[in-house]
């Protein structure tokens, strides 16, 4: 049986793509024919990733076939593109994340923090925030952290305390903890390069414009605004969206029982913990010894395979990892070719000149805020990054923003903008449908916390990066 053909969803990508292709004779003289044709294919591909007549993986494969048949790429270039180090780093980190969930180490860490700090609801929120922070270092999927580890624990804990949407008591404690988890997940996704696949997607695109940012550079830029956000958000939500239950003395006993059910730390958990610590250490100091972030992720996965924490079946079952490996490799290949053919330099110079004379800090502020609030139009992190990041980065550089600052601030923005809608990403879709937080509250609270995050990360972030000498 054939899959349903979503022909309506093909209309906009095909009309715009073919329209741009047919405009080749009147293209700007600074752009050669190949560059213009690839631009037409690229725009059609991005639009198809938004309208989704097919999954992104299928859409990008079709695009690269068209670009090859029309002589823009040689097949050797295409096959070499699948060796992209950034795409492989994302996939390897996904495989490593499977070890966290399969071994049970993620749950053990969560129960430990709840047992230690969970005497009050606010303390419980901070404890769960610490768990999120630890997990975000090595699990680049916000879906895996929220759906696989954090939400089940928060849901069970809330119901244990008598806070249940089915009983109409969600506001007692669960509403606060669920929404706090979502916003904290955004912060931890932003704090670490490996905290969200989208971070690596953005920096992979930046690399095609000859800008490289290391794991350590990202960490240094994000650590201070990240810590401030983790301190501020639970407290602000506690004030504007307060739980009815303030004291949670039973949380300690609940977590203690859960730890007893898990029993002693298994060998798989111990190995996972050691490999995780080793990976973090190498991400921090590896570049000094010629070990880059992608190699670190390969080393971690190899060790987990050797020790039996994960197996080949676990790796093959990570469909999201293989999916992103394919479409990201193709998107970055097309972006790199547009750079080589001179399209992005022309785009940067042309649009950047429109902002000529404006202080680059204000240019960055305008682009950052526009990039953030445009996420109201996008139901996916990676779709917006694929559609807009390269263009915004080119405009920023053309207007005089230091390349590293432009690439870094827009990349950080690419996870912070999740504080917008109930469809902003997978975790939002899940948590907003649990009954703990109403749709009205979700939009209202997201808007408030979004403003706070912009103040901390844009205002405070610029000040902090100045202190550490990044500009």
TrEMBL record:
Its main location: membrane. Belongs to the SLC13A/DASS transporter (TC 2.A.47) family. DIT1 subfamily. It comes from Lactobacillus bombicola. It is found in: Membrane. The chain crosses the membrane at residues 7-24, 30-50, 87-105, 184-206, 218-238, 267-285, 291-312, 324-347, 359-378, 390-412, 442-464. Keywords: Membrane, Transmembrane, Transmembrane helix. NCBIfam families: dass. This is Anion permease. Pfam families: Na_sulph_symp. It is a multi-pass membrane protein. It comes from the Bacteria. The keyword Coiled coil does not apply. The lineage of its organism: Bacteria, Bacillati, Bacillota, Bacilli, Lactobacillales.
């Amino acid at each position: 049986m054939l899959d349903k053909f979503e022909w309506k969803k093909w209309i906009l990508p095909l009309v715009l793509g073919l329209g741009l292709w047919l405009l080749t004779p009147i293209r700007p003289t600074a752009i050669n024919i190949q560059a213009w044709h690839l631009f037409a294919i690229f725009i059609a591909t991005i639009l198809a990733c938004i309208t989704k007549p097919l999954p992104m993986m299928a859409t990008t494969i079709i695009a690269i076939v068209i670009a090859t048949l029309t002589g823009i790429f040689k097949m050797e270039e295409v096959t070499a593109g699948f060796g992209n180090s950034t795409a492989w780093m994302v996939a390897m980190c996904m495989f490593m994340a499977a070890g966290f969930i399969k071994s049970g180490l993620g749950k053990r860490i969560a129960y430990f923090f709840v047992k230690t700090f969970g005497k009050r609801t606010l303390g419980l929120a901070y404890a769960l925030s610490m768990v999120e922070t630890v997990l975000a270092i090595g699990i680049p999927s916000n879906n895996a952290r929220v759906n696989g580890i954090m939400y089940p624990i928060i849901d069970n804990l809330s119901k244990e305390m008598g806070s249940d949407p089915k009983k109409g008591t969600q506001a007692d404690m669960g509403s606060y903890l669920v929404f706090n988890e979502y916003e904290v997940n955004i912060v931890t996704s932003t704090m670490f390069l490996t905290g969200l696949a989208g971070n690596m997607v953005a920096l992979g695109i930046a690399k095609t414009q000859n800008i490289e940012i290391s794991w350590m550079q990202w960490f240094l830029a994000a650590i201070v605004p990240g810590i401030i956000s983790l301190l501020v958000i639970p407290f602000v939500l506690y004030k504007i969206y307060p739980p009815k239950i303030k004291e949670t003395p039973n949380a300690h006993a609940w977590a203690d029982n859960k730890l007893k059910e898990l029993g002693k730390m298994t060998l798989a958990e111990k190995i996972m913990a050691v490999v995780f610590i080793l990976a973090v250490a190498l991400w921090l100091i590896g570049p000094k010894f010629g070990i880059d972030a992608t190699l670190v992720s390969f080393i971690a996965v190899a060790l987990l395979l050797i020790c039996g924490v994960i197996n080949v079946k676990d790796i093959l079952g990570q469909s999201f990892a293989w999916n992103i490996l394919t479409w990201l490799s193709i998107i970055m290949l097309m972006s790199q070719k547009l750079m080589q053919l001179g399209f992005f330099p022309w785009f940067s110079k042309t649009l950047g000149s429109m902002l000529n004379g404006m202080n680059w800090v204000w240019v960055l502020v305008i682009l950052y805020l526009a990039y953030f609030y445009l996420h109201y139009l996008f139901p996916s992190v990676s779709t917006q990054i694929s559609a807009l990041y390269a263009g915004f980065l080119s405009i920023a550089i053309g207007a005089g923003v230091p390349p590293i600052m432009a690439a870094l601030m827009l990349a950080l923005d690419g996870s912070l903008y999740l504080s917008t809608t109930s469809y902003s990403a997978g975790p939002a879709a899940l948590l907003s449908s649990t009954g703990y937080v109403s749709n009205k509250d979700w939009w209202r609270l997201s808007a408030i916390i979004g403003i706070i995050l912009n103040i901390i990360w844009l205002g405070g972030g610029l000040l902090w990066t100045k202190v550490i000498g990044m500009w």
